[in-house]
Amino acid sequence: MHFLLSRPNSVLRLRFNHFATECSWDHLYVYDGDSIYAPLLAAFSGLIVPERESNETVPEVTATSGYALLHFFSDAAYNLTGFNITYHFNICPQNCSGRGECRPVNGSQAVECECWEHWKGEACDIPNCPEDCGFSERGQCSVNGTQGCVCYPGWQGVDCSVPVPANRSFWTREEFYIPKLPRASHKAVVQGNLMWVIGGYMFNHTDSQMVLAYNLESREWMSLGSSVNTVGIRYGHSIALHENKIYMYGGKIDETGNVTTELWVFHISNHSWVPLSPKAKEQYAVVGHSAHIVTLQDGAAVMLVLFGHCPLYGYISNVQEYNLGERRPVVTFTLV
């Protein structure tokens, strides 16, 4: 079953008010275009929380091409209540969450939220000063409310609720609106003050990048050259960091859909990829696995590739071992 929504040169927003289908068997796919070859925006299956007007957790899907193709597949074996979707053209995300005004941008059809005081974000859904920063004991809201909480000495966190030093883990949220960033099933490692993000399923195929680097000190995404894109984009792979190099194994190649046994090394010093060609009697193409560097008793560094899903054998309990120093063939063994 297909549904095509269109209004050229417009931004289309779909809100899933209700969704209840058979999990893993009934699927709804949403594409940003007029065919299944357009970029995939979302895939839904199973249950979404019941509809109610104030529910801000209901997902909203945005198509920027002026078209949205909805493809629904069902095996018709088990029926639930289905789905209820509303759509609008050229409106602000989440209707500004009821905390702002939707304004046109430079007189064009594009619109954006102008948030009320003490709120921020694309949909005005993020408080600048949550819990009022614990005023007057732990901190206070900045003068104009746009900079968030200013914590008093001895306190930290978005709401100044965590002591210094911290007695628990806590999250902070960084906001970026960069087309190259959205992705799923990617991998990341930290080297020094840089976080390297490798691969992933890209939702924006026309402006994607295989490797991203984030400076943890300056809190900025770095600009990288085209050399980082010489390897085909993949997702569900594994990466492991060793001696200024990132080793990448397996995963599903985005262009072909094939699961691979390719082993690549990314040289951080010059941002270049080099293929490695280990030979083995048994080498498994896997996706959804993990990899870790360990040092053996003789001092040799090896990469262990743990488990994963193999197209030929399904989920496997095999561990694949690759000697990084001597580049010896892959050795596999099974955990019982």
From TrEMBL:
Ranges for the CUB domain?
1-90
Q: Which Gene3D superfamilies match?
A: Kelch-type beta propeller, Laminin, Spermadhesin, CUB domain
Its cellular-component GO annotations read: Golgi apparatus
Q: Ranges for the EGF-like domain? A: 88-125
Metal-binding as a keyword of this entry, yes or no, is no
Which Cys pairs are S-S linked? 92-102, 96-113, 115-124
Which InterPro entries is this protein grouped with? Beta-prop_ATRN-MKLN-like, CUB_dom, EGF, Kelch-typ_b-propeller, LZTR1/Attractin, Sperma_CUB_dom_sf
SUPFAM superfamilies, per the entry: Kelch motif (SSF117281), Spermadhesin, CUB domain (SSF49854)
Tell me the protein's name: Attractin-like
What species is this protein from?
Notechis scutatus
